[in-house]
Amino acid sequence: SIVHIMKIMTIHFKPITFVFFMILMIFIGAINSLNAQIYHVGAFAGVSGSMTDIGQEISLIPSGGGGGISARFGFTPRFNIYADVLYTTLSGDDQLASNETRRLRNKQFSNFAFEGSVGFEFNFFDFAPVGFVGRSSVVNRGTPYLFAGGSFFLHNRQNIAVFHGWNVDPNTNVATVPVNAIDFASNYNTSEVVDNNFAIPFGIGYKYIIMDKTYIDIALGLRYTFTDDLDYNSPTRTTYEVEDRLARSPFIAEILARDLQNIGGSGNLNDNDWFAFFKVGVIYVFGDIPCACGQ
Fold it and tell me: Which single residue of 47, 123, 199, 252 could bond 62 by disulfide (Cβ 3.0 to 4.6 Å)?
């Protein structure tokens, strides 16, 4: 199925290889003509999905939503440079996973991505929405296209402050001596801060002219991010304190077990997170008519 193929791509495919391939295709298609330019501006909305260590395994399953604005600069009917701004929510829930281990773990997360991206588009067919009506030279009302580029985005990251110490009697406010190896207190205080990272967006779309100078843009884009913390699965330790009287056997083993459960992370900690966005937009075009028809 398409979902299965996309899952294999996100796990095994190297995004940087796709980007180099895209750039090569785009510049080969662009060398024919640079004699005109058109400008595309518009807005879009859609749904997002995430593929992280928490939640559903496939990023194509919608779990959030958002929208943004889009701009393109067209050199030829085949070649565009684009710039997009996107805001979307991201979330994951182990109960929606197909993996039984994840469902039993029962973790959830909720985050966001505020992204600015730039890149290249390659249209499979000549596409010239300006002057479409009445121009016999423009025969393609729609075209599929590929895109790839780079992006910078903001998201929440989780900090955690850890403290292990003796229990304190709430009535006397006096620390009590542990009676066994697990009779002590462990506090894990978390907070969220805004962080930034880079990603490689790439994907496929389809454009269809609905009237002169206006077209519909439908696209599915995957983002390979350079972070493993979209799901808060790898929190940053801001402080870590263990009272001296606990820094010995038999307390050390219990401290390590508690840390593993609360801040040790789960899943593949060596694999960065992905997210996807499926969008539908309306784009308005103005400027000179690019022509690769020898007029």
Answer: 47
**pLDDT, tens digit (0-9, with 9 covering 90-100), for 123-142:** 999 887 766 554 545 568 89
Q: For residue range 248-285, list pLDDT tens digits in order.
A: 878 999 999 888 878 866 666 678 999 999 999 999 99
Residue whose structure tokens are 């996100």: 10
**CA 133, 135, 139, 145 torsion: positive or negative?**
negative
Question: 148 is written with which tokens?
Answer: 């790839």
> Within 13 Å, how many C-alpha atoms sit on residue 18's CB side?
23
Calpha distance 72→201 (Å, rounded): 16
Which stretch of 42-56, 57-71, 210-224 has the lowest confidence by average pLDDT?
Answer: 57-71
- Coil/strand/helix, residue 209: strand
DSSP secondary-structure letter at 9? H
Identify whether the C-beta of residue 223 lies closer than 8 Å to the C-beta of residue 193.
Answer: no
The answer to whether 82 and 147 are in contact (CB under 8 A) is yes
286: left (phi over 0), alpha (psi -120 to 50) or beta: beta
The residue length of the chain stands at 295
